[in-house]
């Protein structure tokens, strides 16, 4: 590619959408002038030395800070880091590397990757990016909890009955099954995005908002968690379905997926944190592709009111009377609390209502994309939302035994139709802990 071709490609998706929109054209031009294309082999130190030479010309002796973003296949991470670190590091400023997931496939490969990266980089140069941690609602989770007196005292086993982390997509792999089939939904969504949100949700109050203080608390949560067992998990895989005159292909009918693949496209799991705050509270997770809706949310279901005098007004279903706090990460960011309320009138009829903060109504300004926030953080050296090595080890150690067992025993996933609510087994898993999935109750 020439520099011009690269600029043309970038300009197709470039916007000035956050904050100051004036002089947009000038800003874009100024930005594009600084974009250059340099071709070379990932594992060639010589080509990186040429890149270094080119960068030095552009830097013209100013303070040089260099951020390498590795959005490349993981098998070449180490080659690039070796060449960049030996031949294209900054001489007088900082050099940082953003690593895009996957960070290995299990404890062993993840540990190997970390050891290899650390041959060439210090821990504070490595930024492992998980874009879910940059999402507005996930960022707001700690603010909601630690700066509102009404929530923090309730944030424990005394008041919370269960917590649910739900991620669903309404599309399948659609021709991109090559990558996905090697990893599956547990590695792709649960072990990183959902587990990271869980750690932020469940951690103790950090000493300060300093990155290391927050990351220390997250590591403690992860290290207190039980290893997942086969009986704590349900896996599924979507099958083809004809709906409204349209045919949707099943996962194994995708030409990029092997016909006999047992890779799960859906998983539900019950996790437990064995510490004083959360002892006995089920943390339920589910993630799936080709489901009936697209959503990502955290649902906190509180305990029933002891000796509730309004019991008879709810009939037999006390779940209908459960207070529930929902943080909807996407789409349409919102925070709402389900409360019980009397319907106006002469009789005593109760109803569940939402106290609702819908972001687009309250904050009509555009919300920055998660990657925008995280890239800015990496440039500023803010590590709070990036994953530390020991945190990654602790996260993998929860899931690795389960993944090994699923693969060695060749456990067959339960099939569910494209566009459905997922496998029936997920309901049984929740029922074992006397829980109903909040999203399904809401859709009814």
Would you give an account of this structure?
With 444 residues, the protein is α/β, with parallel strands linked by helices. It folds into 2 domains: 3-130, Rossmann fold (3-Layer(aba) Sandwich); 133-367 and 389-443, Dihydrodipicolinate Reductase, domain 2, CATH 3.30.360.10. It is built from 13 helices and 14 strands. The strands form 3 sheets. Strands 13-12-11-10-4-9-8-5-14 form a 9-stranded mixed beta sheet, sandwiched between helices. It has a 3-stranded parallel beta sheet with strand order 1-2-3, with helices on both faces. Helix 4 links the parallel strand 1 (66-70) and strand 2. Helix 5 runs antiparallel to helix 11 (389-408), helix 7 (177-202) packs across helix 8 (211-223) and helix 8 runs parallel beside helix 11. The mean pLDDT is 88. This is Glucose-6-phosphate 1-dehydrogenase. Its EC number is 1.1.1.49. Residues 1-140 form the Glucose-6-phosphate dehydrogenase NAD-binding domain.
- Report the sheet-strand fraction: 15-25%
CATH topology of the largest domain: Dihydrodipicolinate Reductase, domain 2
Q: What's the CATH H-level homologous superfamily of the largest domain?
A: Dihydrodipicolinate Reductase, domain 2
For the terminal residues, how far apart are their CA atoms? 53 Å
Number of helices: 13
Helix content: 25-40%
The average pLDDT value, as a whole number, equals 88
Can you name the CATH architecture of the largest domain?
A: 2-Layer Sandwich
Rg over CA atoms: 24 Å
Characteristic terms for this protein:
444 residues; alpha/beta; Rossmann fold; Dihydrodipicolinate Reductase, domain 2; 2 domains; 9-stranded mixed sheet; 3-stranded parallel sheet; 36% helix; 19% strand; globular; NADP; EC 1.1.1.49
